[in-house]
Amino acid sequence: MELLKGKHIELRPMEIDDLDFIYHWENDPGNWSVGYTLNPLSRFHLEQYILGSANDIYADRQLRLIIARPGVAPLGIIDLFDFDPHHRRAAVGVFVAGEFRGEGYAAEALVILLAYAQRVLGLKQLYCGIGSANLQSLSLFEKQGFKITGTRKAWRWQNGNWEDEYFLQHLFF
């Protein structure tokens, strides 16, 4: 686990004790606009997800890690998903709870995950899609070396309007 530790945070597997935090975050409609979920999730469904996850990217085709300060309640979640072992790539998403935003936790989590993806998983690239109005997330990913390589026009329906989505990639050379 040393590999998944930074200066202020660690990335760790989900535990059943995280259920209340995940339930709260997943069911906050304010968070739905940055993801692909538009409906609430039951506590039972999330419990089954945690218990059923092998936490093995090769088995699950995704890896969800909790962002936490050691000994403190979870601060957020960082995911690798749409894992493609043949092409050695995965999508990445990061969420930090509102009360912890702006403190550098998302950036540190992304740095840790980038190193893990390259050194341990041997990935060639990570990618993500970010709404054009989400300037905070765009800045976060660009500061970590992600580049906008495309624009999906009118891709997201947000607050009664169509919004473009930027496609960003981070290539490991």
Largest sheet: 7 strands, mixed
| Model regions low in confidence, pLDDT < 50 over at least 5 residues | none
CATH architecture call? 3-Layer(aba) Sandwich
- CATH topology descriptor: Aminopeptidase
H/E element string? Answer: EHHHHEEEHEHEE
Number of domains: 1
Q: Which helices and strands appear, and what pairs or packs with what?
A:
Elements: E1 10-13, H1 19-26, H2 29-32, H3 43-52, H4 57-60, E2 63-68, E3 74-84, E4 89-96, H5 105-119, E5 125-131, H6 135-143, E6 147-158, E7 161-171
Key attributes of the depicted protein:
single chain; 173 residues; alpha+beta; Aminopeptidase; seven-stranded mixed beta sheet; 6 helices; globular
Can you walk through the features of this model?
It is a single chain. This protein is 29% helix and 34% strand. It has six helices and seven strands. The chain has helices spanning 19-26, 29-32, 43-52, 57-60, 105-119, 135-143; strands spanning 10-13, 63-68, 74-84, 89-96, 125-131, 147-158, 161-171. It has 173 residues and is of the alpha+beta class. Helix 1 (19-26) packs across helix 3 (43-52). The mean pLDDT is 93.
Summarize this entry quickly:
The protein is an alpha+beta fold and 173 residues long.
